[in-house]
Design brief:
heterodimer, A: alpha+beta, B: 190 residues, alpha+beta, 5-stranded antiparallel sheet
Chain lengths: 191, 190
């Protein structure tokens, strides 16, 4: 029963977060000020790995703030925040994520569609990044825990496979280094 | 009926115990056992258990009686491992492993010894026994049957070797071969 309650709470949080992302959250700041603040905001920490990817922030048209996330100089995906006037000096921010469809990282848009939990995690994290910037408070990692947990569970097989691959690669490289040391010794190559 | 129960249990246990060989007994003649062991340089033991220094194994034997593997590094003998062969029958041979005494009592590389430039991780005996068993049973060496190495000096130097550093048994303390050589060239306190 306790697990049922927990699952319900997590599901409710995600549904609410999903609604916010679809309709956009409203912040008590004029649109011009919100846009300027977001143009100085980085992508969220941690969710993309301990080494954050390169990113740059730009504005497009009158209403969009765009964060372009790239790897080795090539775009992987971008967050697009569309700002609109919500009246009474407030601004509505609707967020989308768009993956590239070709290039060194492949069809990222398709990958994001195939891994909906990861897509949700990225959107949740970026939404919190935007909220923390516009509300002038620290980024609250706790707000992305439910999405992070769901994404981890949903992708556990892939995560384990990734660890297995990394482990195999490490073993191969270790063995190669040891064998090279013996070859060098046999050839009289000093270190 | 109750009277017979303990007897039945003992009989059953004895029957089951008889299903496998005693530890160290292999279904091979002494000659075949000797041939397999003396022909091996214990490659899996070396790869799985070596530390940072490079080691080389040379086998020496008394036909059908004993095989001794001398382990060298930079031509310095680090340790010798002995397998004593005793025929159990024409088709079975008992193999007993022995290692030299350790400086701190016990035997070499028993887990309680300290070596500034260890040749093997400790405890070594289970790994030697696994290597011998793998050779005589005609199977792969199974690292999961051997306790993990507990020698932190070995673990550090092994990590260095895996990362491409090399160590010699006569390197200066705390240095790999490259650092040690650079230090010697400078002829100054390092």
């Amino acid at each position: 029963m306790r697990y049922g309650n927990l699952a319900f709470a997590v599901a409710s949080t995600l549904i609410v977060a999903g609604c916010v992302q679809q309709q956009g959250a409203v912040y008590q700041r004029p649109i011009g000020e919100a846009k300027r603040m977001l143009a100085r905001t980085d992508i969220p920490p941690l969710v993309f790995g301990t080494i954050p990817p390169a990113s740059r922030t730009t504005t497009e048209g009158a209403s969009d703030v765009v964060w372009i996330v790239s790897k080795k100089g090539a775009e992987v995906f971008r967050f697009v925040a569309t700002l609109s006037d919500a009246g009474h000096g407030a601004t509505r921010v609707q967020l989308k994520i768009k993956g590239v469809t070709s290039g060194p990282s492949g069809n990222v848009e398709q990958s994001l569609s195939d891994h909906a939990t990861i897509k949700k995690l990225y959107l949740t994290a970026m939404t919190e990044r935007i909220a923390s910037a516009l509300e002038q408070r620290p980024f609250d990692l706790a707000r992305i825990y439910p999405a992070l947990g769901i994404a981890t569970l949903a992708n556990m097989n892939a995560i384990v496979a990734q660890f297995d691959r990394a482990s195999e690669q490490y073993k191969r490289s270790s063995r190669a280094n040891i064998e090279k040391a013996y070859r060098d010794e046999a050839r009289g190559i000093d270190y | 009926m109750n009277f017979f129960k303990p007897t039945l249990v003992i009989l059953a246990a004895a029957t089951l115990a008889g299903c496998g060989n005693d530890p160290g007994v292999y279904d091979l003649s002494a000659a075949e056992t000797y041939q397999r062991l003396v022909a091996s340089k214990l490659p899996d033991l070396v790869f799985n258990r070596q530390c940072g220094i490079l080691i080389h194994v040379r086998a020496q034997g008394r036909p059908n009686e004993q095989v001794v593997w001398h382990v060298y590094s930079s031509e310095r003998r680090m340790v010798s491992l002995t397998a004593k062969l005793t025929p159990v029958s024409g088709r079975q041979t008992k193999v007993e492993i022995s290692l030299p005494a350790g400086a701190k009592g016990g035997e070499a590389y028993d887990g309680a010894q300290f070596y500034p430039r260890p040749a093997f991780n400790q405890p070594l005996r289970p790994a030697v026994e696994e290597q011998v068993a793998a050779l005589l049973e005609g199977r792969d060496y199974d690292a999961t049957r051997v306790p993990r190495g507990t020698d932190s000096v070995c673990n550090v130097q092994r990590a260095g070797l895996e990362a491409g550093h090399r160590f010699r048994v006569d390197d200066r303390p705390g240095m790999d071969t490259r650092q040690s050589a650079a230090c010697a060239k400078r002829r100054s306190a390092c």
